[in-house]
Amino acid sequence: MDEVFKFVYVMIIFPFLILDVATNAEKIRRCFNDAHCPPDMCTLGVIPKCSRFTICIC
């Protein structure tokens, strides 16, 4: 009986994890220099920079 509950639990949680990763993937901005980072990405007063991993960070 525990196995059934575990299976159902996993089948409920797993799709939500996949959806979360899929929707947050849009927030990752690729860049080659600081000019490629959008200025509205960060909060006021914080300037976005291009990291060495070619990802925009605040």
Automatic annotation (TrEMBL):
InterPro entries: Nodulin_late_dom. The chain crosses the membrane at residues 6-23. GO terms for molecular function: metal ion binding. Keywords: Membrane, Transmembrane, Transmembrane helix. Residues 1-51 form the Late nodulin domain. Pfam families: Nodulin_late. This is Nodule Cysteine-Rich (NCR) secreted peptide.
